[in-house]
Amino acid sequence: MSPDDDIPPEEICPPCRGTGKVISKLGGDPHPVECPWCHGTGRLPRPTADNGS
Ligand SMILES: [Zn+2]
């Protein structure tokens, strides 16, 4: 059982898989940077039903 087992999958940020970090290859040297999708939190807001567009 994982400590993260209580986090609903839809709340885990896919690009960083909940780590809050992604590997940037900018500059040719891969390095971890703060995930721009979740701003380092590792989680995304739950999707809302407001998809009128
Ligand atoms: Zn993220």
Verbal overview:
The mean pLDDT is 84. The chain has a domain at 10-42. The termini are far apart. It is mainly β and 53 residues long. It has no helices and two strands. The protein has a two-stranded antiparallel ribbon. It is 0% helix and 15% strand. A hairpin with a 6-residue loop joins strand 1 and strand 2 (31-34). It binds zinc ion (ZN).
In short:
This protein has 53 residues and is mainly β.
Roughly what percent helix? under 10%
Cα-to-Cα separation, first versus last residue = 40 Å
Mean pLDDT equals 84
Please list the strands of the largest sheet in the order they lie side by side: 1-2
Number of strands: 2
How big is the Rg?
14 Å
The ligands bound in this entry are:
zinc ion
Beta-strand content bin: 15-25%
- Spans of 5+ residues with little confidence (pLDDT < 50)? none
Order of helices and strands: EE
Structural class: mainly beta
- The number of helical elements comes to 0
What does the main sheet amount to?
A: 2 strands, antiparallel
Shape: flat
